[in-house]
Structure prediction request, 396 residues.
Amino acid sequence: MILSQETCRKCFARNPRGWKGVYLASLLSIFFLLEKGVFFMERERVMKKQKGITFILLVSGFCLYLWVNDPQSAYAMHIMEGFLPLGWALFWWIIFLPFFILGLRSLIKITKNHPELKLLLGLAGAFTFVLSALKIPSVTGSSSHPTGTGLGTILFGPLVMSVLGSLVLLFQALLVAHGGITTLGANAFSMAVVGPFVAYGVYRSLVKSGVGQRWSVFSAATLANLTTYVVTSVQLALAFPAEAGGILASFLKFAGIFAVTQIPLAISEGLLTLLVINWLHTYNSQDLEKLMYKKKEVL
Amino acid sequence: MKKSMKGMNWFLIIIVIVLAVLPLLLNKGSEFSGADGVAEETIQEIVPSYAPWFQPLLEPPGGETESLLFAVQAAIGAGMIGYVIGFFKGRSLRKDK
Prediction:
């Protein structure tokens, strides 16, 4: 605790703006309450010591976050139309397509063998659809949006999301001029392939290692969002290496700023995913359990 | 619905709102732009000669139409979520009886 208090004092010294203090304080209280209250259902499973460490980590994480950040512009998650050289655009399309085809197969299999799950599939698709339309302001003074791919991944596995996610991207590329057709391969690879696979890996390994289901859902969705943006900046860096410093320098340039913007949004995404999972727990525990615990049998 | 679960859900919603509203208070000078433009600028900074080789097929004529389309997107999605959750809720209530 002493450590985190000291760190906090430093943050306040660095940030002359009063509001940042308020923001920090409210975040701290939120996380304190989160620790104490929200996840109480799993309290017996988590040892007290572990809890203390998590709390300190969270506090210092946010101190660091506020210490580092200053109002800056961030990058949108999707690479704009025409902003990847032809070679790279094709490259990402080719990498993305096999996942799309596998996803389509898995989607057809699910709807054929379990037509009762169609509604849940619709829910997973709708969730990505809403979340990627919400451009939420972030601390850095710019907006970005959640991806919403975590929910579908937790319910149906990562492959299904490669189809649902890319449909959302296609809609945005065609109608809103957000992202693009030429860059769809790259954007879909980051949002609809890598994000879901990360979510799946995180979710499975956390559940396996005995972490409560709620924390696992939250972490899976949050990390899926963050990874998506990291992959986007890798893609941009590969296509546009800096003259001095090459790919790494450009990666840091692209990733450095938006990573900070993305953290609160990723947290929001994790919380919203958890909210929907909670609803399903209450109103449709039957399907949920079938999907979450006996995944191999169903799919 | 269990009481504890309900409390938790409200709590989750409140945190999400707080996370979205506080930045508005923090950075009063900022416009919270979508920052697509900044990505373009950075690319141009790294490779000054780069010109986009493909234009969007359809581009909304202005900010108003664009926000309309985004609102439509969110509305369709939210409607679907509401329908599905409502359907499940009705079904589970009927089963309980």
Observations:
- Residues 1-19, 40-46, 67-75 of chain A have pLDDT under 50 and may be disordered.
- Residues 246-283 of chain A form the longest helix (38 residues).
- The first strand of chain A starts at residue 136 and ends at 137.
- The two ends of chain A are 46 Å apart (CA to CA).
